[in-house]
Amino acid sequence: MSTCEKKEKGVGVLRNPWLNRGLAFSEQQRDALGLRGLLPAAVSTRDQQVERWKALIAQQPTPLMKYITLDTARMIDEALYFQLVMENVEEYMPLIYTPTVGEACQKFGHIYRAHRGLYICAEDRGHVRDIVANVPNQKVDIIVVTDGQRILGLGDLGACGMGIPIGKLALYTACAGVNPQHTLPVTLDVGTNNEEFLKDPLYIGQRHKRVDDETYYALIEEFVAAVRERWPNVLIQFEDFQNTHAFKLLDIWRDRVPCFNDDIQGTASVVVTGFYSAMRVKKEKLSDQKILFLGAGSAATGIAHLIADAMVEEGTSREEALSKIALFDSKGLVTSRRTDKLADNKLPFAHDYEVCTSFADAVRHLKPTAIVGVSAQPKTFSEEVISLMAQYNKQPIIFALSNPTSKAECTAEEAYKFSNGTALFASGSPFDPVEFEGKTFVPRQGNNSYVFPAIGMGCIYTHAKSVPNGVFLAAAKSLADQVSEEDLGKGALYPPLSEIRELSVAIAAAVAEYCFEHGLAQIERPADLKAAVREAMWQPSDPKFAAGE
Ligand code: NAD
User: Fold this and answer.
1) Given 35, 314, 393, 448, which is the most exposed site by the fewest CB atoms within 10 A?
2) Has 168 been annotated as catalytic?
3) Closest ligand 1 atom to 153 CA
4) Tens of pLDDT along 335-366?
5) Cα–chain-centroid distance for residue 156?
6) Whole domain around residue 120: which residue ranges?
7) pTM confidence score
């Protein structure tokens, strides 16, 4: 049985976004499908349809209206929507994902128009399997699931967080060719502690406080069992869970099912990419670096662990690798001498340093080769901090990763200016090129979108049994290898995002290769892996799409 009703005819075709091609249906198709008279006489090409929608989107006054218009295109004709997005990925990515998706989630109840994805409520315990049975997709390769508690930096948005799994899955398709009919966004609606939402008559979720006791984990257990029963190879990506749950869920599930957490592991992969690129510039080993993080939350500890893994891969012992990484949180340097109780995820990095509450002093004390900002505290990489880094290092690594731009630890301009043009800089938010003393620097964003779609594609392609940290290192290496010498010369540690589709082919193949080498793949290895992965990537023009295969 196909994903869509193959024999659908007439208006049913036009109302089905998986089948509808609107004015692009040819004369013959209109006859065969019983569409005569239901469409105006003109036949448009796909390119003309794209142009029509592009003009419509351009006319919208705000990013949110552009988001809504793009989503409307998707409700009408999914293949056209993806053609639009793929041909304009740099322009539309900030609309379908961050930053616009944040506003869309905040207003999700007010802009809600039509169903998409699956909502599983705390009240559904005991019946989750019946709810999963209602999903119309016969095949699901990937689920992005959130409980809406920590949506971007916006906090608890309850069921309105659904905009995130929807947007993220659109990127899996647009960037790495995951078939959109085989994707499923899921929201676990366990309530919300957002008082404003609880009072809002247009709020779309369960109107009670969050369920946060043992039944929360029981619901997730039931959800995972139900989706794996229906789609045994499904890859599950946990998204925007509050820190404690995020780490705990990963611990519970990482060895049991194919799953990962992009906030923790995808971020780590893209940041390690930045380090690998920086090593190409500095011609040094990662295990020679001494890295100080500003921030010790999920992003920081996820990145720190993957850096340690990368150092171990270079031959360093884990103990030594951990000793080269230090964290600084809101209370100061994370040390074993601190009297407050440190969260579990910080303990491996709590070394025997003196207590220190000024970041500049920590830099003075530790003399790191790299500082990584994941604190969401703007301007904390001050002139003093950056010039100290330049004093201790010929080419200091300075990654200001906090989002949005207003929260960045420093701007690109500050990093280059205060380091006298020596910084190897990457950011979490986009920055324009910077002119400094006659040289143009092109800073690029360590955007997770470089890696998570291709990691997903590589795991889906191989039917990976699990997704260990090595997968994220494989992805990071592949991406770093694709940064051109010319880009490195301009200070760019990442390739242009406009090349994402090609980059993704190589990354997905590298991930697949890792899965074959480590006994995680459940298919036979093709002779030409890269060609096979490319072939498996869905295209909007794929005739199988309309046929629902
Ligand atoms: P989090 O809330 O888990 O962690 C924030 C950390 O910052 C905590 O450890 C906190 O103690 C620390 N902190 C707060 N105030 C501080 C201060 N004044 N001085 C030092 N430390 C302080 O958040 P997170 O999920 O780890 O994300 C942190 C930031 O990283 C966010 O801005 C997020 O947008 C950004 N991020 C960027 C990327 C990317 O660029 N690819 C990916 C993920 C997260």
Assistant:
1) 314
2) yes
3) 34
4) 999 999 998 889 999 999 999 999 999 999 99
5) 19
6) 95-257
7) 0.94
